[in-house]
Specification:
Layout lengths: L2 E5 L2 E4 L4 E8 L7 E7 L6 E6 L6 E3 L7 E6 L4 E6 L8 E8 L11 E4 L3 E6 L1
Parallel strand pairs: 2-11
Antiparallel strand pairs: 1-3, 3-8, 4-5, 4-9, 5-6, 7-8, 9-10, 9-11
Length: 124
């Protein structure tokens, strides 16, 4: 079993930056692909970014490409999401997730473990 705990959310002005962290416990996630998803009120959950188990590849939603960077430190069992140039439309609850398959990283249904989320609010 894997427990994921997100942190680093908060209130920031448009154009600002935040770094989210996702700390895993229970077992190592070094063999898992890790993803970030977000869900805004009244909207469906959407894929944000994912990183391969060894950090050798990453993938981003078009809406965040060039602004967000996903990284991982397997020694610390932690995944990060650096968010720069934040926009009001980035406001959402952000979740990290762990899954086995890189080929299905866009699909939230394919992830095995989820955190509880951390709120990000971007003011205009």
């Amino acid at each position: 079993q894997v427990q994921l705990v997100e942190s680093g959310g908060g209130l920031v002005q448009a154009g600002g930056s935040l770094r989210l962290s996702c700390a895993a416990s229970g077992r190592t996630v070094s063999s898992y692909c890790m993803g970030w998803f977000r869900q805004a009120p009244g909207k469906e959950r959407e894929f944000v970014a994912a990183i391969k188990w060894n950090g050798g590849a990453s993938y981003y939603a078009d809406s965040v490409k060039g602004r967000f960077t996903i990284s991982r430190d397997n020694a610390k069992n932690t995944v990060y999401l650096q968010m720069n140039s934040l926009k009001p439309e980035d406001t959402a609850n952000y979740y990290c997730a762990a899954g086995r398959s890189w080929s299905t990283v866009l699909a939230g249904s394919e992830y095995d473990y989820w955190g509880q989320g951390t709120q990000v609010t971007v003011s205009s």
